[in-house]
Amino acid sequence: MHERLRAKMVDFHGWWMPVQYTGVLAETRAVRTSAGVFDVSHMGILRVTGPAALGAVQYLLSNDAATLDPGDAQYSLLLNDDGGVIDDVIVYREMTPEPQYLVVVNAANAEADLAWIRPRLASGAALTDLSEQWDMLAVQGPEAVSLVESLANTGLDSLRHMSGRRARVAGVSCFVSRTGYTGEDGVEVLCPEEDVEHLFATIIKAGAQPCGLGARDVLRIEAGLPLHGQELSERISPVEAGLKWPVKPAKGAFIGREAYLCAREMGPVRRRAGLRLTGRRIAYGGAVIEAMGQRIGEVTSGTFSPSLGCAIAQAYVRADLAQPDTPVQVETTGGLAKAVVVGLPFIRHGRAVVAV
Length: 356
Hints:
CATH architecture of the largest domain: 2-Layer Sandwich
Strand order of the largest sheet: 10-11-12-9-3-13
Number of strands: 21
CATH superfamily of the largest domain: Probable tRNA modification gtpase trme, domain 1
Structural class: alpha+beta
Helix content: 10-25%
Radius of gyration: 20 Å
Number of helices: 8
Shape: globular
Strand content: 35-45%
Order of helices and strands: EEHEEHEEEHEEHEEEHEHHHEEEEEEEE
């Protein structure tokens, strides 16, 4: 279907994915101003069930799943014993009498996550991989919720952020959650694999712009959101990444807890920060950042921001120089460029947060 829509296709960790349809800039603007739809069916979807389901999720993940009511979702981290980030995930408490959970993991990490989780799963909990049975569409933008609501058999505007409910959308039985990865309002729609093409086509017909991986990356960089494999890895702690908020040591034991507490106590040597570059030249992942003639950090993700009209990047910068307004120089496609450290995000709900 993507090829019929004339998408440019690329290999993304073994998945044949659309990188763009009409163009990255047009698709980015559609999400910032109206509505775009992404096929994110490559994401891994795991289900944890059984009488020990809550205990298993609590031990495996950093956030406190005990606070979730049926239908609620939360961002959480899968940590290793050293406190590094194996993956970042979304956890949903399903709408069942006894607690059971869906864990949406990054496609590139799905096999590794399963290999890590299975031997550490508590007795009395069961793990099922639903990735081949369920697909997911992300409809994002200021008009996204109303667009999907127009196709649904129930109201969706009352959905709180990070919560969901069952609904029929375009006649398809779905789970609709008010979540996303763009910095805009919107929903993610989980549906059976056999229904996803009909659902995707109907959402496009209703007015959403089909969007690819290119726009998704620009949007999430502008929104200051990390990507595992770039801003997050097993060698990066939540403290360095600025992700202390989804780590809840007070809940009790979980993998990586002691290492996290130690890292928090010591404080980070480097911090994740934003960079606003002068001009349009892009600093790609791995580009060196300099200040006062010294190497002080490295870019993890860079792009041209159509919302701001300049190049931006996420990076890890020496902690004592990670304060906003610190002037630096960055390697770009055209040589060294002047830049300044800024806070994250760059964009929130279509509005610039940093000065340009």
